[in-house]
Amino acid sequence: MAVLGKRTLDEPVTTLAGVGPRIAERLARLGITVIRDLVYHLPLRYQDRTRVTPIGALRPKLEVVIEGAVEHSQVQFGRRRSLVVSVADSTGVAVLRFFYFNREQQLRFVVGRTVRCFGEVRRGPHSLELIHPECRVLDESSTAALDARLTPIYPSTDGLHQALLRKLTTLALEVLVNDTGDSDQLDGLLRELLKRDVRLPTLTRALVFVHRPPPGAPLDELWQGSHPAQQRLAIEELLAHQLSLRRLRQRTKRLSAPRFASAPDLRRQVQEAFGFKLTKAQARVIGEIDRDLSRAVPMLRLLQGDVGAGKTAVAAMAATRALTSGYQVALMAPTELLAEQHTRTLKRWFTPSAIDVLPLTGRLRGGLKRQHQNLLKEPAPRLVVGTHALFQSAVEFARLGLVIVDEQHRFGVDQRLALLEKGAQGNFRPHQLIMTATPIPRTLAMTAYADLDISILDQLPPNRRPVTTTVIPETRRDEVIARVRDASAQGRQTYWVCPLIDESDVLDSQAATDTAAELKTALTPLRVGLIHGRLKEAAKLDVMQAFIHGAIDLLVATTVIEVGVDVANASLMIIENAERLGLSQLHQLRGRVGRGNAQSACVLLYKGPLSDTARHRLQTMRETNDGFEIAERDLTLRGPGEVLGTRQTGMAEFKIADLSRDRGLLPMVRELADRVLSSAPNLADRLIRRWLVDRVDYAKV
Ligand code: ADP
Ligand code: MG
């Protein structure tokens, strides 16, 4: 209870000095509305301005203070004019580089003067550099005191400066320390649950420490996130996350779904159309799905299976049950390209049984599209294939019984919630099968997807030969071009991928266009195709069709072909700038080959010098084809602080926890979640509200 005259954490931020409507609006963008939210708005990282780093100890990416004498200062005229100043201490020389500078700034750097600079270290053409550091000339008159504490850097948004965030968090921490109302039962219970680890501080102390590490705080632990205060908060955050997913699961289990009967006849017909026998793993996973589909509770199952493991066939088997029971099935693909491919495959499999397969892709003409949409308003068993966009629009389903989502690497809890609402009628929900080729280790999956049941397709169809991978510097590009020619002479096709050069679609497409032109000349008379993000959907599909039909020998592409594309005759994959891609992306791309009977190869072209991590990544690709193994290595390769982010896996972004670093905590977190749910359910609510305010509206859950 709030004591009269005392501030509480539940008060709106506008009660803090300096927060008017404009600032409040900006804070709201960060999910901060009450004082408590500020307390849980944790620093992303810290700047260390407490000590001077010897120049000899600089490493790229570190943010450091250096101090040294100006040795040399000069304006360079290269591609971009820059002021270049070399600074030396007794351990080495570093370069300061400024692209924007005026005459006065230039004159400050008198040879022999001592300067102190703060900035991020980067690799320059000749030595390590600080780009646009903050600099101060040290002379007898200026005192040279360093900061006593680390400087926290907060996640921010336009128009919210770090200084203001620091001021506001300071005020919020004062409220926290005085508001005993917040730590009552909660801290006690958590302490009891956590008593195995006595080293952990209380919640309040942990929060204060993380916001304002005291002078002398152990820096290494802080950088790594292994300090007990950080671990204490990470446990709570992971717990909150876990609890929210369990709630979601409990909610799903209270809803109802249609029971599907078994479908022996339709299955037999479809399997005949497959032209192959299901693998043991496929059969097992289909069994797991069948159990769910025969219950009156919505299935919410994640199917993880490596690239090429045959998830589409599993999806088709799941569909047979819904169709036989008179329900509609919707299959969503992430791209038009893939939707088109699935339509073709499913038509081949289902047409013999007279089941309609209706595409709803962007390519469809208006008339046909409307016709298909109208067909879906009839309660007849049909299979519809499209992208997410189409399902978000005005498509109405008369009797949707099963939703299958393919290649879903990037989906967060909020998207899962949204999906759950699709086809909802009162308490009724369709069953859901979510398929992904981004395998993640089991312990992680159980945490990140605690709201889902998980099936694993851990076996490739027989007769697959592992793709041979080689790593080649781009100076030997000619050899690689010769291999393309050889492949083509043997009637095989090749992909040549030019991945992200920039975060810009325009520039990437340009790079692919240039490469295609270059290769066309180098490889005449081979037929070279080009596909990139700037092409119209119809044009992309045309190029893809041509490749599928063998009318193109070499397909130059951006990473648009990353997911799902299945062309068995393509047996050579070249990936340029491979050093820039993450392991899971490389693995996905490589998975485009090795789908037929021919021995396939993947060439990873790189531009040196390679960073340690890049070298390890490329080596991993050379050593293994196993997606789960690659996922494991990916985790260990990531440095501390490199969060396993939403982009890669669709897992939540955390404020302080790091799924890879904090893996060891996960079993404990799951146990804690069990105990909280059984013995203190309202504690669960409070934890969820504290940590997840800005993400999903769990109040509705
Ligand atoms: P992914 O799991 O990556 O989606 P696909 O479903 O595209 O894999 O299957 C990859 C290829 O393997 C397809 O050409 C498919 O027809 C084939 N395939 C699937 N299952 C089997 C099987 N049991 N035996 C032989 N080939 C199979
Ligand atoms: Mg697939």
Structure overview:
This protein is of the alpha/beta class. It has four domains: 13-45 and 153-215, no CATH class; 51-146, Beta Barrel (OB fold (Dihydrolipoamide Acetyltransferase, E2P)); 264-457, Rossmann fold (3-Layer(aba) Sandwich), CATH 3.40.50; 468-624, P-loop containing nucleotide triphosphate hydrolases (Rossmann fold, 3-Layer(aba) Sandwich). It contains 25 helices and 21 strands. Strands 11-12-10-13-14-9-15 form a seven-stranded parallel β-sheet, sandwiched between helices. A six-stranded parallel β-sheet has the order 16-21-20-17-19-18, with helices on both faces. The chain has a five-stranded mixed β-barrel with strand order 2-3-4-6-5. A hairpin with a 3-residue loop joins strand 2 (63-77) and strand 3 (81-89). The two termini are 26 Å apart. The model is unreliable at 639-651 and 694-701 (pLDDT under 50). The protein binds adenosine-5'-diphosphate and magnesium ion.
SSE blueprint:
Blueprint: H1 21-29, H2 35-39, E1 45-47, E2 63-77, E3 81-89, E4 92-98, H3 103-108, E5 114-123, E6 128-131, E7 134-138, E8 151-153, H4 162-178, H5 184-193, H6 203-211, H7 219-224, H8 228-254, H9 264-274, H10 280-293, E9 300-305, H11 311-324, E10 328-333, H12 336-350, E11 357-360, H13 366-376, E12 383-387, H14 388-392, E13 400-405, H15 413-421, E14 431-436, H16 442-448, E15 453-457, E16 468-473, H17 477-489, E17 493-497, H18 505-522, E18 528-531, H19 537-548, E19 554-557, E20 570-575, H20 583-590, E21 601-606, H21 612-623, H22 627-637, H23 646-649, H24 666-679, H25 681-692
Parallel strand pairs: 4-6, 9-14, 9-15, 10-12, 10-13, 11-12, 13-14, 16-21, 17-19, 17-20, 18-19, 20-21
Antiparallel strand pairs: 1-8, 2-3, 2-5, 3-4, 5-6, 5-7
Helix pairs in contact: 4-6, 6-8, 8-24, 8-25, 9-11, 10-11, 21-22, 24-25
The chain binds adenosine-5'-diphosphate (ADP) and magnesium ion.
